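From the methods appendix. Each design record in this collection lists the tokenized structure first, followed by the designed amino acid sequence. Records were kept in a plain field format so they could be parsed without special tools. The example shown here is representative of the layout used throughout.

RECORD:
FOLD TOKENS (188 positions):
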């Protein structure tokens, strides 16, 4: 995923200022769960998208505040990326998966401690996603709100899978006969 497409997608939902886009791609919502970017990346990209004719300034306010909207060409670019571009695996940068690979280097008690933290964290994230999905438990709402519900359902299922895996892994460590018996090393 790229920052230009994240910006185009957010602007396709509704016009926003650079500040509002920075908030959306910050530490909450889409920025927390899908694509994080700060203002030092967002503002230059907005200028580039504007030069390319993919977005336009729809309003200018005090102190140079601009509100941006997506253009027809911007919609075409977003659709091409969403529909026609191949789905490729993301560049891996997942702390939980890294910890999975390295758990065998720990004593079982330490590994169980980390796994229990993973369970607690994933259960908390899943609960947050359940709260989002609670308003529409059986179907997604029409319009822009539906996109967030689809993403929340993905997050909920992913978090539930992490909880299940971590509990299974705890059981593996608890079944070990001796703390000195190493687990097999993962393929790297």
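DESIGN:
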């Amino acid at each position: 995923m790229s920052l230009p497409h994240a910006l185009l997608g957010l602007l396709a939902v509704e016009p926003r200022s650079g500040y509002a886009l920075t908030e959306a791609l910050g530490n909450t919502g889409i920025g927390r769960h899908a694509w994080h970017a700060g203002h030092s990346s967002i503002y230059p990209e907005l200028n580039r998208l504007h030069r390319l004719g993919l977005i336009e300034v729809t309003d200018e306010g005090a102190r140079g505040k601009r509100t941006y909207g997506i253009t027809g060409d911007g919609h075409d670019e977003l659709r091409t990326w969403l529909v026609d571009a191949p789905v490729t695996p993301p560049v891996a940068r997942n702390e939980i998966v890294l910890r999975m690979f390295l758990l065998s280097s720990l004593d079982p008690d330490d590994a169980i401690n980390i796994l229990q933290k993973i369970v607690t964290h994933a259960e908390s994230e899943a609960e947050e996603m359940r709260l989002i999905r609670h308003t529409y438990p059986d179907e997604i709402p029409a319009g822009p709100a539906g996109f967030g519900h689809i993403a929340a359902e993905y997050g909920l299922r992913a978090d539930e899978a992490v909880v299940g895996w971590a509990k299974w892994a705890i059981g593996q460590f608890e079944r070990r006969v001796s703390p000195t018996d190493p687990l097999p090393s993962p393929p790297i």
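APPENDIX NOTE: The mean pLDDT is 82.
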